[in-house]
């Protein structure tokens, strides 16, 4: 059985998730940040999808700056804020916390000075296989009772049951691919891969401050075939700093079905989906937030070659006419 502290902590964590949503970075200018050597445990990725026919789903947890002591953590299924029901999973009877608002789904242990493969641990979350639900539903997991380290910023993990993952990119290979950076003629700056010693790094960044001309740079996905799927959604993490008084927002999100994959994107037709219902964007301070699932299942997008683009624009090149934007954890799903 789990301790009273464990149960109370689980409920507190679930409540905090309701208020805070996903984790965020330090909110400090990367050029001014100091390195953080504090050992931290977090999820390896922010989400994964699975069919309900699978026996279990592996969820990876990582540690950075491992100390010279053992580190342990529990994986919590937050039933109270999940779309799924606990019956979707094969949790043992003693995993329930309190009145069923949460379940301890498993635990991980990292040895002292964990590096390489030892710095990643996996919890196999069992699926019950008894659900008769066909809809795509999201289960939320978080970390709790971390002993010997702190909890990193990626402390919300979403398991989407019944979903198909068409693309999941967090730029961990430290290169933009499979995305392409395409600049409009005379763009003063370009999207680039940025790295820093924080939990979100690496990510794609655009910053037109100090450029020779205003910026118009595009970060464009590979082509998707939406003719064999339905219920397509897009989500991504984003962070902002500074304000451009000449534009409503320096980051625009667009979809095209006639882009040729290599030309000047300005010569093709794009549908602006930036401000679709429910989409969330950073308000500044380098704070990463998740957009949530943006619906891109429009009938006009049901084509064999569908491109998604992140367009970065500025009205000028100095303070008050440029914004800095960062993009990460890009996820395209379908049913």
UniProtKB/TrEMBL annotation:
Pfam family membership, one: DUF5017
Coiled coil: none
This protein's UniProt keywords: Signal
Residue ranges of every copy of the DUF5017 domain listed in the record: 229-331
Secretion signal span: 1-25
Recorded superkingdom: Bacteria
Family annotation (InterPro entries): CalX-like_sf, DUF5017
Protein name per its UniProtKB record: DUF5017 domain-containing protein
Organism, as annotated: Longimonas halophila
Upper taxonomic lineage: Bacteria, Pseudomonadati, Rhodothermota, Rhodothermia, Rhodothermales
């Amino acid at each position: 059985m789990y301790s009273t502290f464990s149960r109370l902590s689980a409920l507190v964590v679930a409540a905090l998730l309701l208020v805070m949503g996903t984790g965020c970075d330090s909110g400090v200018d990367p050029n001014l940040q100091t390195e953080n050597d504090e050992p931290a445990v977090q999820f390896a990725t922010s989400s994964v999808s699975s069919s309900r026919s699978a026996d279990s789903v592996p969820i990876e947890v990582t540690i950075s700056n491992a100390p010279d002591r053992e580190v342990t953590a529990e994986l919590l299924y937050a039933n109270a804020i999940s779309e799924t029901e606990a019956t979707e999973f094969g949790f043992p009877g003693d995993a329930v916390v309190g009145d069923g608002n949460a379940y301890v789904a498993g635990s991980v242990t990292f040895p002292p000075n964990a590096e390489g493969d030892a710095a990643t641990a996996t919890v196999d979350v069992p699926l019950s296989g008894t659900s008769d639900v066909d809809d795509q539903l999201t289960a939320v997991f978080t970390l709790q009772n971390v002993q010997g380290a702190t909890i990193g910023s990626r402390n919300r993990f979403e398991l989407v049951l019944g979903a198909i993952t068409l693309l999941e990119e967090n730029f961990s290979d430290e290169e933009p691919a499979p995305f392409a950076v395409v600049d409009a003629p005379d763009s003063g700056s370009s999207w680039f891969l940025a790295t820093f010693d924080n939990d979100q790094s690496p990510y794609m960044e655009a910053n037109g401050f100090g450029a020779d001309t205003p910026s118009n740079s595009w970060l464009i996905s590979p082509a998707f075939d939406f003719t064999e799927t339905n219920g397509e959604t897009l989500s991504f993490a984003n962070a902002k700093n500074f304000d451009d008084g000449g534009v409503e927002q320096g980051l625009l999100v667009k979809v095209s079905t006639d882009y040729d994959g290599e030309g000047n994107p300005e010569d093709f037709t794009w549908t602006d989906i930036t401000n679709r219902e429910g989409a969330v964007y950073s308000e500044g301070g380098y704070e990463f937030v998740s957009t949530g699932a943006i619906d891109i299942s429009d009938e006009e997008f049901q084509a064999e070659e569908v491109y998604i683009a992140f367009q970065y624009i500025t009205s000028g090149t100095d303070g008050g006419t440029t914004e800095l934007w960062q993009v990460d954890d890009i996820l395209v799903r379908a049913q």
